Amino acid sequence: MRRAHNPCPQHTHTFSISGDSECCTACYIEVDENENETVDRSDENDSNNDDPDHCWTQWSNLPDHILERIFSHLTIKERYYASLTCSGWYRAFYLPHVWSNFLVEDATLGRMRYNYYSGWQPVLDHARLQSCLLSVGHLIRGLDFRPQVSFNNMFQFMSLISWAMEQNARTAGCPREWVGCGSRIRSLNYLFPCNMAMSEDPESIKLFGTGGQLLAALKRLMLCLTNLHSLSLVDLFLERYEANHLLDEVLESCCLVLRRLCLVNVTNVHCPIMHIGLFLNLQVLVVSPQNIDDDVLMLLADSKVKHLTLLQNRYTPPALAISPCSAKAWLTVRRDNPKLRVHMCVESTTNAVILLQPEAPVASMIYQTPKTMVTINSRVFLSVCVCVASSACGSQFRYDNAVVGLAGIA
């Protein structure tokens, strides 16, 4: 057993991904069953180094824009290891677009710890997370939370990064090491794994919503993101009293800067979210049909929203259980906000039906379902849309990845 040569000894990061939390420098430990083979390979490499005709690869000389694309597809651990290969890739580790999206999963910056009831489980390592935020926290432009089972890891991650951003907002001055942490974050995505069915049947569904301390940590984080341009909250399934105050912090911090808002299945029952009509510069809105009503449409009629997508996924209540908005409200929207275009989309593995909205300025209907058949009512609805929409020639109807002009269906 020997220590491998560090190819870039003058460049070492301040956080360790694979070592102990007490060790803050990179260290490779190579174990070979046959020490003689190791010595032979080492001698062979030394001979190659002395060979003037040896051809070296040019991976270290790739352009920055290519390195950014490569590093952006790697996990945090893989980025760290790649940055240790040479000085050029070490510099690429800190390129701006490398950290355009920071994916947070159960095992992100965690260690495996044995649990008596669940076996080995990933547990967030606070030392790793703190060191990571100190190194690249000022470069992160997007946060993407995708928990599976370790909700406590998500809670602790959001709590720590929220605390770091709160240090920047202190009137008494921010500690030097936390200056700029999280200041460049422009997008936040949170996908809650609401289906807790343990069956192997892919169509089995057992829905559970979030809330409590996890929701409080999420709202605390949203309050700290004062320059948020895109927000996506999917499958939260909150209670009504929680859903009514979900966007209080976002409205306080991002009322003027938010451009895109995605709220899918905030609740499982009819519960209009009035806040979505109060963002002054919102342009793209994706929402489930059970979370809008006539009052929300009245607010959208006086807004700058250009694209409204009514999305139904596999967890959205059936169309028969949801009431569409009134035709009078849609006519008001068409009159006061003529640039608004409505897109209806259904995503499901079963026979799902789109909830039709009479008199809505529909620009497209998208079926991402393998078992759905287009009904006569849908064809008649599309024909009416062609007759009344001012931009019918440019409208599209998508079904099973095929694009058909609405005029052709009419």
Automatic annotation (TrEMBL):
Give the matching PROSITE patterns.
FBOX
Name the InterPro entries for this protein.
F-box-like_dom_sf, F-box_dom, LRR_dom_sf
Q: Which residues form the F-box domain?
A: 56-102
What species was this sequence derived from? Anopheles melas
Listed SUPFAM superfamilies:
F-box domain (SSF81383)
What Pfam family is a match, any one? F-box-like
Q: What is this protein called?
A: F-box domain-containing protein
